[in-house]
Structure formats: structure tokens, C-alpha cells
Amino acid sequence: MLASGLAAQAQELPAGKDSDLVDRVCTACHNNGRVFQSNKDADGWKTTVDRMVGKGADASAEQAAQIIAYLAKYFGTTVNANKADAKTLQTELDLTADQAAAVIKYRTDNMTIKNLADLAKVPGIDAGKIKLFENRLEF
Ligand code: HEC
Fold it and tell me: Which of 75, 78, 83, 93 is such that its CA lies 20 to 30 A from the CA of 68?
């Protein structure tokens, strides 16, 4: 527990609608390495954020809901780029139907997507946008 706390490195949050809010509220007591070490679904993040508010995190109910939505989106459950179906790619990684189909075609033609750089090479994928999800991606 102590060791993992010390190992947590502050990092730059993916720029989203509420990244500044999360940065302000969630780095008051510990750096955001805590967030980067976690992948939770929306329920899991709700439990954590409620717990942090209980400890004194400075967020209104509305802000807490925004923070939960942000964390569930960028620090949600992991998505395997080689196994996820088209629907998961669309709902979890914000891809269009065309982009999801291109990912599936790419991995069929090329066997495996090895890393984020490979995924960004898929025709039609926006490299900047997909990078926002790097904390959720596994290969
Ligand atoms: C008032 C101080 C404080 C603030 C503000 C705070 N935390 Fe924490 N957080 C803690 C403490 C203390 C721990 C370690 C003890 C524990 O887990 O209860 C912790 C642990 C964690 C953990 C690891 C344990 C777990 O439940 O997964 C995560 C993740 C986390 N915080 C996320 C957040 C997020 C997200 C926010 C912003 C909503 C936040 N923290 C704001 C004090 C705070």
C-alpha cells in the first residue's frame, strides 16, 4: 500500500471536458497517479469518488457526477484492442462504425495490434483522439 502510493507518478490527464475539474479536485491530497493506477467501471468510480468526497474532496454533487463520468470514460474498464467487438470499440473508445470496422479489418489483415502506435496507424483513426484512451487499452 505504502510502496504503491510512493510509486504513483503524477501524470497529465487526458484532455477532456472535465480534465481541469478532476485535476483540481483530485490532486488536493495525493497526486493523480492514484487515478492512473486504476481502471474501474462507472459504479466503481462512483464508490471511490463518494469515498473521496467523504474524506473532504471539494466537489458539489454535480461536479462529482462530472468527475465520475470523466473517470469512467478515460480510466474505465480495460479494452483489448485485439479482442473487442465493433460495438465495444464504438461505445468505449468513441469510434465511429467505420472506424471500428477499420480496426477489425486491420487486425484481421495484420494479425495483431501490438501497441498504441499500431492502433493509430489504422486508416481513419484519429491518433490524437485514440491516445486519450491509452489508460484503458491493452493489446
Ligand atoms: C481529502 C483528501 C483527498 C482528496 C481530495 C482525494 N483523495 Fe483519493 N485518497 C485519499 C486518501 C487518504 C487515500 C488512501 C486511503 C484510501 O484509499 O482510503 C486515497 C486513495 C485514492 C485511490 C486509491 C484507492 C481506491 O479506492 O482505488 C484512488 C483511486 C483515489 N484516491 C482517487 C481519487 C479521486 C478520483 C479524487 C477526486 C474525486 C480523489 N481521490 C481525491 C485522499 C483524498
Answer: 83
